Description:
It comes from Aeromonas veronii. This is Acetoin utilization protein AcuB. By secondary structure, this protein is an alpha+beta fold. It has 5 helices and 5 strands; from the N terminus they run βαββαααββα. It has helices spanning about 20-30, 50-60, 70-75, 95-105, 125-140, and strands at about 10, 35-40, 45-50, 110-115, 120-125. The strands form 2 sheets. Strands 1-5-4 form a 3-stranded antiparallel sheet. It is globular.
Amino acid sequence: MMTLSEIMTEHPFTLGPSNSVKQAMDLMQQERIRHIPIVDEQHHLLGLVTLTDILATRESKLLLISPEREAEFTDSVQLDEIMTRQVASVDPHAGIKEAALYLQRHRYGCLPVLKGRKLIGIVTESDFIAVAINLLELMEEQEPPTDF
């Protein structure tokens, strides 16, 4: 059985609870990611901030402030104010199929991978797409050639 440790991204980009929304937005844009685990000094998972969280927060708050104050807003709001605290997580030895079904059933975009309470990786929808592509390529290699 293949496990998540074989497909997860080790040492994912993280931020702390006192980092700002602006810092999260910058990291997401720079690294082309949509999920940021929020950790403490011991790398224990505290929560998760997603691009959807940021967009929803910005949209709701920006309706109340002028465009000139948007930068001030994104600099002043800390991630612990918007992060999801109850985050589903998985063990690195969990099976890929079970984790994929869990993501699909709950409509999650990622699962942080923990060893004890410590964040050691993250598995995202993209990781499962890569597995699917690899399986499709293997199937194509095993198919007998067809003449058209």
